[in-house]
Write a structure and sequence with these properties.
81 residues, mainly beta, 5-stranded antiparallel beta sheet, 7 strands
């Protein structure tokens, strides 16, 4: 699971009866190598650190400060937002 994901917790008489976690979360890129203009090799990836500290693989065009959508189940990059 990706840190920073929002969860809905259902309680009954002070007991947690269910937890639902959002399928995606939007987070900022805190650290990565700079992207190079025109560097759009199909499928090429580089490591990037999210604002939560988790490191994911992102396309070469993603830069520091970009906001990305991440799948909370797999922790994988989905798209830039």
């Amino acid at each position: 699971m990706v840190e920073g994901a929002k969860a809905i917790i259902a309680q009954y008489k002070d007991e947690i009866v269910s937890v639902e976690i959002a399928v995606t979360v939007e987070l900022n890129i805190a650290e990565t190598e700079p992207g190079i203009q025109g560097d759009r090799v199909s499928g090429a990836r580089k490591p990037a650190t999210l604002e939560t500290g988790k490191v994911i693989q992102v396309p070469l065009f993603v830069n520091i400060g970009d906001r990305v959508k991440v799948d909370t189940r797999s922790g994988e990059y989905i798209t830039r937002v």
